[in-house]
Structures are given as C-alpha cells and as structure tokens.
Amino acid sequence: MDKRFPQIADQLLLIERELRVLGWWQEIPPSDEDLSSREPFCVDTLDFDQWLQWIFLPRMKTILEHDLALPNASGILEMAQMVYASRAQETRRLQELLAQFDRLIVESV
C-alpha cells in the first residue's frame, strides 16, 4: 500500500465535508449520460462540484480500496481556481483542501 493512502483518504473526507458545508452535496446523481462525458472534468455536462462528488471522489475511493496506483499528477486546484474565480472567498477552504490533495499526489513515495 502506498504510504500516502491514509492521508489521501482523510483529505477526500475533508473535501466531501466542505462540499456539504457549502450546500453543494447532492442526493440525486446526474444522468448516466452526463456522467459519461469524455471532456476533462465533464465540463460539458457537470458543474465542477458535481464532478468532484460524482466522478473524482468515487474514483479516488476505488483507487484506495483496491490498492491501485495513484495518478502521477493532479491539476484539480487549477481547475477550481478557474471555475471559482468570482467566488474565491466563498470557496477558499475547498481550494485549500484541493491544493493539499494535489500536493499529496505529487509527493514522492
């Protein structure tokens, strides 16, 4: 098991918690069609917070649960900064959490 797994698991829980605090956590998933977008971050079918909830968090959970290889890089913070440029103060904590996730991913094993 990658030594970063416990920290990443904690980070994912913090990201989920922040989405809930912001009131962006949804009970009803998007359609299968919306979830199957081939665009990065599903920009053509989902809001970024939906992508975090329905694509990113489940994929990362699968990686951790099945002891799969972590990605080599992560640019999630960059995307968040673009998406939330006009809401930087409101999303400050979420962006901090995403920045920490990015750092954990690029940290050497």
The residue fraction in helices comes out at 55-70%
Strand content: under 5%
State mean pLDDT (0 to 100 scale): 95
What is the count of helical runs? 5
The tally of beta strands, per DSSP, is: 0
CATH topology: de novo design (two linked rop proteins)
User: What does the overall shape look like?
Assistant: globular
Count of spatially separate domains: 1
**What characterizes the major β-sheet?**
none
Straight-line N-to-C gap: 10 Å
Radius of gyration: 14 Å
| Quaternary structure state of the chains depicted | single chain
CATH class: Mainly Alpha
Order of SSEs: HHHHH
Q: Which second-level CATH architecture applies?
A: Up-down Bundle
Extract low-pLDDT stretches.
Answer: none
At the fourth level of CATH, the homologous superfamily is: YqcC-like
Structure in a nutshell:
This protein is an all-alpha fold and 109 residues long. It has helices at 5-21, 32-35, 48-65, 76-83, 92-106. The mean pLDDT is 95.
Explain what the structure shows.
The protein is an all-alpha fold and 109 residues long. The protein has a single domain (5-25, 44-106), classed as Up-down Bundle (de novo design (two linked rop proteins)). It has helices at residues 5-21, 32-35, 48-65, 76-83, 92-106. Helix 1 (5-21) packs antiparallel against helix 3 (48-65), helix 1 packs antiparallel against helix 5 (92-106) and helix 4 (76-83) runs antiparallel to helix 5 (92-106). The protein is globular. The chain starts with a helix and ends with a helix.
